[in-house]
Give the backbone structure.
Amino acid sequence: MNVIVIVTDSLRVDHLGCYGSKVQTPNIDRLAQEAALFEHAYADSLPTLPMRTTWWTGQVTFPYRSWQPFARSDYLLAEVLWDRGYTSALVTDTYHMHKPVYNCGRGFDTVVWVRGQEYDPWIIDEDIPVDLSRYHRLKGDESDALWIPRFEQYMRNRSTFRTEEDYPTPRVAKEAMRWLDDVVKTKDQKDNLFLWVDFFDPHEPWDPPESYWNLYDPDYAGQEIIDPVAGMVEGYMTPEELAHTQALYAAEVTFVDRWVGILLDHARDLGLYDNTMIVHVSDHGEPFGEHGVIRKAEPWNYEELVHIPWLIRHPEGIGAGKRFNQMVQSQDMLPTILDFLSIAQPLELPFLAPTRTMFPQDMVIDTKRVTMDGMSLLPLMAGDVEATRDYAYTGHNDRQWSIRSHEWSYLLPIDGSGPPELYDRRSDPAEQVNVLHDHIEVGKHRTG
């Protein structure tokens, strides 16, 4: 069996057609028709790198770790599969994963880093002219010193984009297709493949190719703000500017969907659909003023940030076309993949090292029993269990933690930045009215 995981970073649930949006996402919608769709999937450890740690370890990390490299004792998904004969690849333009010391390529046979996203120090020629006034707005305060070099870096990266295929998203898709062609056509291998495709889009900056710009707000005549300074909206952007920036984000989603579709069609053409689990997921959403901020400016675990899309297409049709209302979480990814590949748990992580005489160099000097916090979703997809959990937990390390059920959401700022908050999700799904004072006992139950 094979596994292909497609991540689209910062993708809001309410911007996919299969989740009820009017945003054009025909390719992901097509996948959803063949997949299990989880209506209440929640991120567990935020943001970018903590989420990948959760995906690749099956462990909840926000109470114990911040944004940091993997630990020596982590047993990562690619390493588990390497030890069992799988051929694997990571293809990504998520440049945080490429930064020094993070070693996000651990265990993969092939790693392709596509450069140029956001503030990646890719094009460093300072002679390239940069005009920040066209697409950016500074605040004229002390924050300018932080944002000016970042915005300039992206504009230098962007100077290389001439056609749609020059943008990072198409380059990621084409590199993933190139790897599939190599293993399937050149090496004649159609089994025991693991491909993780990690698209940074639709993460900001929100500047899709020109043909997408006017899809969702064609009559707008103001400034194009593709990468707002993260922070409070009031006093910085007008309602019209905020709405247009969200329209640019929607256009970016449609752009990403197109290339996800091209990649999926290529996998179909290669004959991989009959024995491949295909997963589409995001690490988190994106705030657009729902609680006063633009971008992930605060560690606030509100619905618009922590609710994620998640599709799983099983090659045998398990759960196909069904919508699951149960709570599921990011830490369920690894147990689900292992279950699909019939890899038993718990895992034993072997520590290999030379003996004192240096030979042989693959002697096992210690082992660690590895358990996971998540659960396989295959029994839920097959209808063998009614639910996997009653609550979903989400957290930013040392900042804010939260817990959700279908009825309530409780947010606890453990850094002392504010009081706890309680929301009645049945009447207030957007979490706008804090009702903690009216339901003290519910709040106590959540903290207990």
Observations:
- The mean pLDDT is 96.
- The CA atoms of residues 14 and 21 lie 5 Å apart.
- The chain has ten helices and 18 strands.
- The longest helix spans residues 239-269.
